[in-house]
Amino acid sequence: MKILMNGLIKIFLWGLLISFLGSLPLGTLNVAAMQIGIQESISAAMYFSFGSLLVEMVYVRISLIGIDWVRKQDKLMRIMEWLTLAIVVALAAGSFYAALSSGENAKNPILDNDMNRFLLGALGCAINPVVIVFWFGWSTVLFTKKILLPENAHYNSYIVGIGLGTLAGNCVFIFGGNYLYEKIHGAQHYMHWFIGGVFALTAIIQLVKMIMHKDGVSKFQAKKEEAV
User: Fold this and answer.
1) How far apart (Å, rounded) are the C-alpha atoms in residues 99 and 95?
2) Tens digit of pLDDT for each residue in 202-211?
């Protein structure tokens, strides 16, 4: 029993650490959560984060119990990748539009909609294949090192750790962005420029990687062919 508990705690902490560190680099979802927190409210940004992390947890669970099915979804992940790129470009354009607009309360028009923030976060994560590729890779490593075992208890502990890690990482952006907004005069204007730049740079890097076949989906396909 003690060995089992130690194993569950260990895989929980691994999921928590990997997810937290993976959420810290500037990305589409955490930056979008930050922008929602700045132009709307902390609660709206938290609902957005809850939606995205729930889908992330579901994706991890699917990848753990349906690895063979995931490996066959090349076309679907490629479509998701292009959709994500289009959304990032739209978010960048919306942020620049808000930065150029007069008025302290200018908002990104792409995020200024009536969609429930929980559902918006869930949708944003659902069409992002990077989530699948990222966790497929890490789960494979943990399986190989026998840190993660093919048992439901291990899966559940791992997924809970992932959810909490993602939430903690998003909170860094949400509360950090809100703190800067409150402390710096005219911060929202500058934040729109900064966020627009992040989205634009993300889109450019992603497009270059896709053209050069160095993106996550291409690497995922290459590993699958090597395994065959």
Assistant:
1) 6
2) 889 888 888 8
